[in-house]
Automatic annotation (TrEMBL):
The lineage of its organism: Eukaryota, Fungi, Fungi incertae sedis, Mucoromycota, Mortierellomycotina. This is Oxysterol-binding protein. Belongs to the OSBP family. GO terms for cellular component: cytosol; membrane. Residues 256-276 have a biased composition (Basic and acidic residues). It comes from Lobosporangium transversale. Pfam families: Oxysterol_BP. Residues 256-287 are annotated as: Disordered.
Length: 320
């Protein structure tokens, strides 16, 4: 789940290009595109990395599961050269629905441009449904409503991710409207399939391609080799489980999963006995969400980049 949510930044150019637009409505439309591509991505765990993209789009990304009970994951993305900062948190809730299982994606993503004070985009994500968990064909659907809101620009977008009905409809449909918050005036309409082509149309105009999954480039994450990662980084911590899944050894996968989780439960009990609490290495509570512990980040892009990289990649790991 942790690496999955960091995939939110697999198309960073969508937001980076938005900040180059001087028209506020066009800027909002460009930011909204990142929510439309949510489904294309096709003792705590840490996932620090750099995004392997063209230099002008490069950024620093750190994701961390800061709690297991309840499950809470947080991630931070920064591209100081592009005046971009993103902080997101995810509090998934599981729900079983007969032959389906739902993951309700509670939490919020805060996108801000450091050169545009007060312009914050608050984004929520669609829920995830696993169908056919008992019988039939197993597949994943996105459903319900996701939103993008910027109060300073007086704009909001509601995106409905449509699930297929028993006898009608199709898979992976999406529709939405971009409106003025104050008046409810519809400025744009969005339609299509999040797994294929998504279209946008301005009021009174023909629709045009908004996001095309087939041609979109997914930018890879640059991570350290596994043997150079810290003990609690996701890919290293779960490496034996991953290896078992790759050879379809479910018994071994379950065993390796239990080893990691049992060790984490033991540490939790030890903290309870000592009367101590877990303190997140990178993040701290901030209102209803979370923020990076690093303070006083420079307004100079190169200095800020150095500060963030040093904090994320050189802060000592807690003992195993």
């Amino acid at each position: 789940m942790l690496e999955r949510i960091t995939d939110f930044m697999s198309h960073p150019e969508l937001i980076i290009k938005a900040n180059q637009l001087e028209d506020p409505v066009e800027r909002f439309v460009s930011v909204t595109a990142i929510s439309c591509q949510a489904g294309t991505l096709s003792p705590r765990r840490t996932f620090p990395c750099k995004m392997g993209i063209r230099r002008r789009y490069r950024g620093i990304l750190c994701g961390r599961t800061i709690s297991h009970h309840p499950p809470i994951s947080v991630y931070y993305y920064a591209s100081p050269e592009n005046n971009l900062r993103i902080v997101g948190d995810l509090l998934p809730k599981s729900k079983f629905l007969g032959n389906s299982a739902a993951t309700l994606m509670q939490g919020e993503i805060n996108v801000s441009f450091t050169n545009r004070p007060g312009e914050e985009y608050l984004i929520t994500m669609p829920n995830v449904y696993a169908r056919g968990i008992l019988f039939g064909t197993m597949l994943m659907e996105l459903g319900d409503v996701a939103t993008v809101k910027c109060s300073k620009l007086d704009l909001i977008c509601s995106l409905e991710f449509k699930v297929k009905g028993y006898f009608t409809g199709s898979y992976n449909g999406i529709s939405g409207k971009i409106k003025r918050i104050s008046t409810g005036e519809v400025l744009y309409e969005i339609s299509g399939k999040w797994s294929n082509e998504i279209y946008i149309s301005k009021k009174g105009n023909n629709k045009e391609v908004y996001f095309d999954v087939k041609t979109a480039r997914i930018h890879p994450k640059i991570v350290a080799p596994e043997d150079q990662q810290e003990w609690n980084e996701s890919r290293r911590l779960w490496s034996k489980l991953t290896a078992a899944l790759k050879v379809n050894n479910q018994s071994l996968a379950t065993e390796e999963k239990s080893k990691v989780e049992d060790a984490q439960r033991l540490k939790s009990r030890e903290r309870e006995e000592k009367g101590t609490t877990h303190v997140s290495r990178y993040f701290e509570p901030n209102g209803d969400g979370f923020d990076l512990r690093l303070k006083n980040i420079s307004s100079d892009p190169q200095v800020a980049k150095s500060q963030i990289e040093n904090f994320i990649f050189n802060t000592p790991a807690p003992p195993s």
